Amino acid sequence: MNPLSQSAPTKRFSILFILFFAPTCAFLQTYSEYYRLTSEAKYQMHLGVPNKAIVLFEKSVHLVKEPKGFDLFCMANCYAHQKQKRRAYKFLKQAIKQNILPPPKAISSKPFSDVLSSKQQAKAIARCNKKLIELESDPTQQRLLDSVYYYLYNDAFWYGGNNKKAALKRGEKYIDSTLTSYSVYKQKLVNFIQNNGYIGSTRVGTELISIPVIHLDYDHLVQLESTLEKEFESGHILPYDYGSIKSTMEKHQSGNYCAYFLDNPKCGAESIETVVKNRTKVGMSIYLDGDDYNYKDVFSKRRLLFFKTQY
Q1: At what angle do helices 139-158 and 118-136 cross, to 10 degrees?
Q2: C-alpha–C-alpha distance, residues 100 and 190, integer Å
Q3: Residue ranges of the alpha helices (H) in 172-238?
Q4: Residue 94: its pLDDT value, please?
């Protein structure tokens, strides 16, 4: 018998392994590539080159079953700038369907007012209002949103003595008087995410939950590590926020904030290669140091010049 040949059980195991795990690996690769393309597209929007952004967006939407709502809205914006009425209206409607609800003023002003008729603008605004009513009347959605605000304002109350008055003023109804310490609050947040998952923009339309999560200390973040990894792999955590959390853990361990970001003065040129590798792995753009989903964020001219010559 050839010692290199596989036994029947081994072959069956290999086939099962491929059937169960290959799709997962393919999904993760597709997911990262999707976000890499959309992040670069937003960078092109920032530069004012909508035609290049459109090419990148169009490549990205074919990679996933359900493109993210904000990406669809950005596509609509780009097509509006390019005076492509049908495409602009198509992606605007798709974005609204996915709970991206721009205010009426955003729909009735440039660039959409340049390409959409007043009737189309009115229809889009009506769709937004209808969707808003649906979301507000959904008890599950409302419960999750209330939970986000609960943890946001209680975090603001406990995180630094200067925030207590502002937190009380802005979120009085969410401040929990039964909490006895910041540590008790943090453990409650950890338990909530372990039980409910990460309640970010893909689920409730806002990333506010990322603020209290990033404020957690290392011991609490370690408790959440496996949960957050699963939530990232399922698409519930956006790459920028996942990178922020991973960088926070790195900072707690070594004092180094250069794992995924280059916006710390201590991050020198020697860190760039590692940072680019980390960012690409989770689908972040190599160009942005701010929120990947706010393409108007501040850019470092020095860093952009470096990227242009190196990548």
Answers
A1: 80
A2: 28
A3: 182-196, 201-204, 210-214, 218-233
A4: 94
Q: How many residues does the chain have?
A: 311
- pTM (2 d.p.): 0.72
Distance, in Å, from the CA atom of 265 to the CA atom of 249, rounded to the nearest integer, reads 18
Output the 3-class SS for 2-29.
CCCCCCHHHHHHHHHHHHHHHHHHHHHH
Task: Give dist(CA 135, CA 122) in Å, integer.
Answer: 20
Task: Summarize pLDDT for 31-50 with one digit per residue, the tens.
Answer: 778 888 988 898 888 788 99
> How far is CA 188 from each of CA 145, 168, 225, 237, rounded to the nearest angstrom?
16, 19, 16, 20
Distance CA 44, CA 296 (A): 10
Region 211-225: what's the mean pLDDT? 95
Q: Single out the residue of 46, 51, 90 nearest to residue 67, CA to CA.
A: 90
CA dihedral 20, 23, 25, 26 (to 10 degrees): 170
